[in-house]
Specification:
This protein is mostly beta strands and 783 residues long. It contains six helices and 42 strands.
Amino acid sequence: MNIQLPLRLFVLGCLLFGAPALAGGNLIGKVTRADSPWDAVAGVTVTAVLGPGDLRAGITDEHGEYRLEDLPPGTFFVTFDKQETFSNAIRDIQLAEGQTLRMDVRLVEGPDEAETLEWGFHKTTLPTHFQVNGRFFPDLKNQRRAKAQDNTVRSVDSVLELAAGAHVSNAGLSLHGASGREADYRLDGLSTVDPAFGTNSLPLHSSFLDSIDLSWSGTDAMSGGATGARIDATSTPTAFREFSGSAFMSWAPGVLEGARASPGAGDDRPRTTSLGNLGDFGGTFTGPVIPKRLALLLGVAPILSRSRVSSATSPFLDSRGVQALARLTLNPHALPGSMDLTFITAPTRWTPALAATSEASRPTSVHSTTTKTSLAFTGRLGETQVQARVGWLHRQGDLEALLNEPGAPPPTDSTRTSPSFSTDRYQASVRVEHGLTLLGSHRLKAGIDAEALRYAHATSPLDTGTSMPGPEVRTRGSVLGAYVQDSWAPPFSHAPELNVGVRYDAQRILPSDGGTSLHLGEQVSPRLELVFDDPLPWFSSRLFARYGSTVSVLPLSLAERAAESPSALVSPTSRDFLLGLQHLSHGLSHLSVTYLHRKLDAPMEGLLRTPASPAKERRYEALSVVFQQEHELENLRFYLSYTRSSLAEKGTGRVRTPFAQRTLDGGWPTLRDASVSDRPDSIKLYVLRALPTLHRWRPTLSLSYIGESGAWMEGAPTRLPWVHAVDASATFLHWIEYTGRITLGLDVLNVFNFQAVTRTDAFGAPAEYQPPRQVRLQARYDF
């Protein structure tokens, strides 16, 4: 390893984190409603009464979170006040020097006292999740490089790349040996995965995201349909109490971009030579239409980019898109809960490389539009929590938009006015949860999910032998899943908590020729988990073990691709065993060590080969060490992980990475595959430091580092070199009294402009490099 990298990191770390820590202690927490624990209460005044006339006050944000800083050690009491809400003072709060206490409070409306009160040190979730929300790393989602939609949108993939065992490729987020096409992306509880190609068709802008949770299927019985990552994202919540919103913008000027590495001499393929501009802007607005009964949320974010390319006919590639969100939330008298009606649309238009290198004076642009419409009910029926959702995910556009998708047909005549392809995913799900006391505490969960899938596209003129497209081809499918689960905490001391469940999944595909339907992925998957709290008396810890299996849903385009060899249509499955130990330090940080063993049968990568064939069984083993600071202690928050892993294929050893293949546009650098690279070593770090307030501005500095082993290409004698990436961010927060807050940000991505080779072609020549350094300016106003 080059010694200059640790030296550079040391110097940068000294510059970022050399400031002294603030004195005193901190009181943090979250305020929610007693009858709806998932409903955060914003605008609550939290006051620490330290003595006569000595008051320290704060206000909960949109996530219900509050923070009182630099409190002197001693004993005091705290009050929580809001219009139409009342809570008695909470007395005898003892705070030591440099200590951080977390006190979560649940409030009820009216003149009653707080229904329940929890305060002190809280245990964390198991390290099988990587969470980004108002409590865990809230600023991270705005500081990552754009990864989605041709690297123009900051969405879930951008944020989750820092999770242990995760890697972002052109197909999406791969996790623990499974590819991005075997992942399950969900937004507000419904899938956004394209039913034809298996990729995330609606990467929502980070400014519209409230929280992101990453796990892998097999975590519990309610997760299924994917052997890879399970990504659950929730959009911005609707506000009932008062009007609020935001306005934001970001801009990455191309003039500040680092130098790009170029392919070797003699390579005349078209490629991006530099960034022109990349930016987005927009805003959100939410508030009550009818107080306490009907609320509205609106959001819009145009996204623009321009890149310079090595083309004699058109020197630029332009991409334009917009994301728009609208939601109505209803709390009717007649229903014991709330209903959400949500509509999201994301049209995009861009110039593909094939058009840019054509002889036309004005290159033809192509378009693709994704829309999601959903209706959700969340509430209680007696003592039972109920969630019911229905939704429709629709995507349509030109076939040229699918140039980099495996299994896509050749493009049709660009003069067609009707959409050349369309996909539909109709979804419905019901979930119930009920508490029960019987020989201890039980938490019973059950649910059912049903989906109808459709993929239609025009026949290529190359297939018809004429100059006109042929008839439309349609492939349909259906997916069914059901589960039951019980979480049992026995009444005995030192007894383990037991989570046991079972899930059923099945998929049916009706080929385009109307032949016999194919039944795939029918599987009954057991899930078992044991959690021992404090098994060792001398320190606070958790010991846990888990076993589970799951099956992936096959994209419909792969059914067409494998039509000539139907035996290759085998759904990917996995069987997982996890063993871990977690050490808790006062609920503020934890150190965890986990061992994961996965058996991956029939990975989806085999269906992308020519000809399609079932892939061999693979085994994935990983030992991960994670040290995480969950709350700000002395204004420092961090996440550090090291993963040692092995991905091997039966009979051939370590999995090799396929060579970069030229796409239909003549070799544009975007790669189209679902391969997973074997990267034995991975180090990931995220550090955030809040500095003292200066003239009512509060600066925050953050640093992230990702270091991974290089890929081992097919036929190559050795691996490619290590890949290092260092990103740095600075934000400046200014509160405007009675109005809102202003946030200014500066992000430097790939600070040292590393240009490591990440992929080669069949001749060993570089085909893909790290993205160059990018400087991004941000501004946001919240009111």
